[in-house]
Specification:
This protein is of the alpha+beta class and 279 residues long. 38% of the residues lie in helices and 15% in strands. It is built from 11 helices and 10 strands. The protein has helices at 23-27, 62-68, 70-74, 76-81, 107-119, 156-165, 177-183, 188-204, 207-224, 232-242, 253-259, and strands at 8-10, 12-14, 40-43, 52-55, 58-61, 90-93, 139-142, 147-153, 260-265, 270-273. A 3-stranded antiparallel sheet has the order 1-4-5. It has a 3-stranded antiparallel sheet with strand order 2-3-6, with no helix packed on it. A two-stranded antiparallel ribbon has the order 7-10. A hairpin with a 2-residue loop joins strand 4 (52-55) and strand 5. Helix 10 (232-242) runs antiparallel to helix 11.
């Protein structure tokens, strides 16, 4: 079959709760907002939402189309390297609500995790399913509008300063942290160990301790109602409102807003997120 140089694709809209109602519909030239939240527009061959491709008057799923002639469509080198699959997924996101913090696995971690959950027969729709494919998913993000995001951990010196400045977070920092940080200067592996230990404490401390630390923080922020989106206080209060836990508990993810870099991307600006790094 002769493949035309250009093919028309129709993307798939993913209706997650955090999405907006009009940005993606407008991109698709729809006259009215969607009654359902439109979170992501996918262009690719992912099995959970393959694009539709039009060729010679027919319409078919892109993944099925590629499978018919992978070398002709992808090129011989790409087809060989990526096992006859399109090696990327293009997404347009409209985040009406804050998104959860993510850490995409390395390729080896993704392959091992996927096989482990397959052997355990964990359903793809189960809330406990972590690996829905074998891919590692490094990401490039390009802003279409002003966009604020958390991107990787702050330098340890900034984290120490943040925990001193935000009074409610002071007890997160071990008493000997400044001394250990000074001793670790010039030693990346020791510095990485300090960060790992600190974040492990944040993510594993009892919920009662999380509430004890975060309740005063949230109560103070509610009184001052911060409005500067370039400061973590704004997003900490918003996260407390958008991610309430049952029985009045606090989401420990709020700590991460102070520990990770807060970036503002303007239209056209971009970041790269390697696999295996926190986002």
């Amino acid at each position: 079959m002769k493949i035309p140089g250009l093919l028309k694709l129709h993307g798939t809209v993913q209706h997650y709760d955090w999405g907006g109602f009009d940005f993606i519909p407008k991109l698709l030239n729809q006259l009215h907002p969607s009654p359902k939240p439109c979170a992501e527009l996918w262009m690719g061959s992912h099995a959970n939402g393959p694009s539709l491709v039009q060729i010679y008057g027919l319409t078919t799923d892109l993944d099925k189309f590629i499978a018919c002639a992978p070398k002709d469509i992808l090129g011989e080198a790409v087809a060989k390297r990526f096992q006859n699959r399109l090696p990327y997924l293009f997404k347009i996101l409209d985040a009406r609500k804050m998104l959860s913090i993510q850490a995409h696995p390395t390729l080896a971690q993704a392959e091992a995790g996927f096989e482990r959950e397959e052997r355990a027969r964990v359903s793809f729709t189960a809330a406990t399913r972590n690996y829905k494919d074998r891919n590692h998913k490094p990401e490039v993000h390009v802003a279409l509008t002003d966009f604020w995001m958390l991107h990787g951990f702050r330098p340890l010196e900034e984290i120490a300063g943040m925990m001193k400045t935000v009074q409610e977070l002071q007890l997160l920092m071990p008493a000997d942290f400044p001394e250990r940080l000074t001793a670790a200067e010039g030693n990346p592996s020791v510095r990485a160990g300090l960060l790992r230990a600190l974040y492990e404490r944040v993510m594993t401390m009892p919920q009662s301790e999380v509430d004890w630390l975060l309740n005063p923080l949230v109560q103070r922020l509610e009184k001052i109602n911060p409005t500067d989106k370039d400061q973590p206080d704004f997003w900490a209060l918003r996260a407390a409102c958008e991610f309430p836990l049952p029985d009045g508990h606090r989401d420990r993810g709020i700590f991460s807003i102070y520990l990770l870099n807060l970036l503002r991307l303007r239209p056209g600006e971009a970041t790269f997120q390697p696999a295996g790094v926190l986002l």
